[in-house]
Amino acid sequence: MLNSILNSLDTHIAVINREGFICYVNDAWQRFAADNGMAQEGVNWQQYNYLAVCQQAAASNDHDALSVLGGLQNVMNNKQVLFEHEYPCHTPSEQRWYIFKAVPLIQQSGHFLISHQTTTKAKLSILQAEQLSIEDHLTTLYNRRGLEILAEKEFARAKRDDYSVGLIVFDVDHFKLFNDYFGHIAGDLCLKRIASVIKTYARRPGDIAARIGGDEFVLMLSRVAQQQASDIIESVRHKIQEMNLTIAKNEQVTISGGCAVTIPKGDKSDFQTLYYNADQALYIAKNQRSSARTA
Question: What is the pTM of this model?
Answer without folding.
Answer: 0.62
